[in-house]
Protein: Reverse transcriptase zinc-binding domain-containing protein
Amino acid sequence: MAKVNISFWRTVIERLPTRTNLASRGITVPSMLCPICQELPETESHLFTGCPTASLLWSIVGQWCFKQCRPFFDVKDLLLDVPDRSSTKSKEFFVDVVIRATVWTLWKNRNQLVFQERRNSMQTLIVEVKSLSFLWVKARARHWDVGWDEWCRFNFVM
Ligand SMILES: [Zn+2]
Structure:
């Protein structure tokens, strides 16, 4: 895993107002349970890795792009410092953008359910991750000549 951003991400995620984080600050929450699966307390680790929705999204995202970075992407890497000896600058950049888009999509999905009672399909979440990450890559690397179709296939030289 890219060495630069893991601790940053862990910090961001740990500060999100999940139900368990709110409760630990003395704020009353309607329920401690994860609003998505309603089965386990909504900790950041559950919401972003253990929850069936997160786990499925990560595995699809992993098949989509991380197959080029490592044989299998383990979502626990998000919350741990796991050094990746084969890391390069561009690889770190793509991995970071895709992780960012996936974390953002999971948090937005959770908020849409909590505040708008809107439940997104897995297909919607996947399209969101791909389009967000594409926009962010394009914003950071304007001269990088990869189109939407190539991005969706994640088939290019890094
Ligand atoms: Zn859940």
